[in-house]
Write a structure and sequence with these properties.
It is a single chain. This protein starts with 6 loop residues before the first strand and ends with a helix. With 259 residues, the protein is α/β, with parallel strands linked by helices. Helix content is 32%, strand content 25%. It has 2 domains: 52 residues, no CATH class; 193 residues, Vaccinia Virus protein VP39 (Rossmann fold). The strands form 2 sheets. It has a 7-stranded mixed beta sheet with strand order 6-5-4-7-8-10-9, sandwiched between helices. A 3-stranded antiparallel beta sheet has the order 1-2-3. The protein contains 9 helices and 10 strands. Strand 7, helix 7 and strand 8 form a beta-alpha-beta unit.
């Protein structure tokens, strides 16, 4: 798939001056310099190929392949065929991880994103990639959508490069976790700092609860370079693949703020 090339410029900053959720860039468009934050996904998705050029070409993001490869290996080790999975791809965006799932042979993939722009971009750039694509807020999931999702008999949840900065609140991830079948698989990545004891954010607390209460049986946990920063410094994440042992109970769900 070929896209036009964009004129992207990064600001002059001191190393570590900007946090990962503060990074921004300049796009030269129609002889004007426009500033976008990295998390201005709606604006990025409106321009075919800009998201890919920024994150995958300039900043060397390799998380879709990394998480996809680990999921494949874990399933092989457990004598489970990738082709039989029914995956819910949370924070699907314009289909970067969905495309990776298709490459490794997954037959059923359902996309979910809160952004209408993401859905439009996916249909434009990767038509037919998902068997269904829901534009929904999983912090407030309606009964009709819940019933519809149940018909897919989903047994795997994926969420890649979308967690931990408010893009997907903890409650949305927890709701998606409860959608998948008992003993279903979970594959996601998170910034390394979210596993630190000092992190008390909702998402960090949720992941720690899942691990400490055996709701999620970890099969593979690996630290790796997610991408580089605008300063060229490595940004490390953890990739996790595990198996769901139980639903997240109502009292934990109720404790998660809708950010």
């Amino acid at each position: 798939m070929s896209y036009q090339k964009y004129n992207i410029k990064f600001p002059v900053t001191e190393p570590h001056q900007l946090g990962q959720d503060e990074e921004f860039f300049y796009l030269i468009e129609n002889e004007q310099e426009i500033q976008f934050r990295f998390h201005d996904y709606g604006e990025l998705y409106k321009r075919p190929g800009l998201y890919e050029q920024l994150f995958y070409e300039r900043l060397k993001c390799n998380s879709p392949k990394k998480v996809g490869d680990i999921l494949c290996q874990v399933l092989r080790d457990n004598h489970i065929e990738m082709t039989g999975l029914r995956v819910l791809d949370l924070g699907a965006g314009n289909g970067m991880f969905g495309e990776q799932l298709q490459i490794v042979g997954v037959a059923r993939v359902i996309g979910v994103d809160i952004s209408e722009e993401a859905y439009i971009a996916c249909e434009r750039d990767r038509p037919g990639l998902y068997d269904a694509y829901y534009v929904r807020d999983f912090c407030d999931l309606d009964a009709v959508t819940q019933q519809d999702l149940a018909t897919w008999q989903i047994d795997c949840l994926s969420c890649v490069a979308a967690l931990g900065f408010g893009d997907i609140p903890a409650k949305a991830f927890a709701t998606a976790f409860n959608v998948i079948a008992q003993s279903g698989w979970v594959a996601f990545n998170i910034k390394e700092s979210f596993l630190l004891e000092s992190d008390i954010s909702d998402f960090s607390r949720l992941i720690k609860w899942l691990l400490l209460n055996d709701a999620l049986e970890v099969h593979h946990l690996e630290r790796y370079q997610h991408r580089i920063s605008i300063d060229g410094l490595p940004l490390f994440y953890y990739a996790l693949v595990g198996r769901k042992e139980s639903d997240i109970p109502n009292h934990i769900m109720a404790s998660l703020d809708h950010v």
